[in-house]
Structures are given as structure tokens and as C-alpha cells.
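Entry for the shared binder. Reason: the reviewer on the internal report wants the predicted structure included alongside the sequence.
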Amino acid sequence: MAQQSRGTRRPLRATLSVTFVLILAGLLFTANARLSGGEENRQPENFGELVRQASGHGDDLQTEVEGLRSAVDVLTLSQATSVRELDPQLAERSGVATGLTSVSGAGLRVSLQDAPANRPQPEDIVADDLVVHQQDLEGVINALWAGGAEAMTLQGQRVTTLTAFRCVGNVLSLHGRVYSPPYVVEVIGDPAALQKALDDSPTVTVFQEYVDAVGLGYEVHKLDDVTLPAYDGVLTLEHARVPDGTDIYS
């Protein structure tokens, strides 16, 4: 029988044992890595868990909103200071501009009057030429504003940004009241600048031509000191309605 050769090969039993140990260690390492690595990113596996998480997130957001709302309330209360307390001069100027404060100073008084009924008139003059019209009054008022008027009254009522008047025939409707001529405008401002604005107004110039032609009344007086009352009506424009029969799409 031939002699068995010497070699370095290890016994089969030992080799299998080492291999099995290595495989088992690898499996354990892989399983442990999956468990530890997936713990942070693990998602709920049922609907109930999802609902509980969403509910908790909603509660957190609600708490944050309530905190922000409380902060806003605190800031609002801390700023609850009137304009008059912060800047008395600004409050006074605002009151004058809106008509809510009476004001005194130098200015002008402008009066417009219909022509006398018993005055002889040229043949080409019609009755419509003998009365003060809305555009005549608007021309005077616009010229005075352009001349730097600080405050104004019409028929003794304070003129504001919401003031609207209408002339029908020789009757003036203003702030729910009706007036007959003469129509009187009082204004506070630099008298010289106001007078120049009247002289430069094309509308007022045309009116003065009719003053000369048919006897319409037009008088301007300088006022060294006049007091204009505050507006005592409602400044809130609550609603507007389109008149019946008006086609707003035409």
C-alpha cells in the first residue's frame, strides 16, 4: 500500500465548524444592523397608529397657533395708543382735513346769486341763463381747493371728502337739506392765493361774463378771521344702490 502523503489540509470537521460559526455571525450581524438601523425610520404599520401621530401633530400646531395669537394680542394692547397721544399736531391736522374739527383763520367768503327777476334782459337770454347752476358752484369750490383751501363750508355746513350736493333749478340739496340762493362758500386759507385761483378759473370766468350780461350775483369778501364748524353728520359710507332703470353695462 502506498504511503500517505503529508499535507497541510485541516480536518474536515474543524473546517465545517469554523465555516458555520462565520455564517452564523454574519446572519446575526445583518439582523442586528437591520433592527438598529430601522428603529429610527420605522413607520407605523396600522391605521390607528397613523391617526394617533397625526392627532398629536395637530395638537402641537394648535398649541403653536394659540401661542402666536396670544403674542399678537399682547402687541396689539401695547400699541393701543391714540394718534392724539402720539402726535397732537398730526391729530389736529387730520381733524381739519376730515372736517371733524372746527377751525379758525383768515380766508374768503364767496356768494353766488340768481339774477333779479325784474331786470330787463336781452332777447337772446333764456330763463336758464338767469340762475346759478351746479357747475357754477362746483367751479368756485374746485378753484378754492386748488388755491390751497384748508377748510370749507357751503351754506354753513362743513365740506368733507364725502360731501355731495345737487342743484335742481334754483334749489340746492346738501346733506339732506335744501337751500335757495344766495349760495355762500366760506373758506380758510391764504386770501391772496384763493383770490388768484378764482381769477384763473375758466369756469368762474364764464360765470362772471353772465354776471355782467344778465346780473347774476357774484361777490368775494376777504375774511380776517372766520370760524368754520366741525362736520356733525355721518362720515361712513354704508352702502350704495344703482338707481332703478340704470344700465350699468352700457
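Summary line for the report: The first helix runs from residue 12 to 38.
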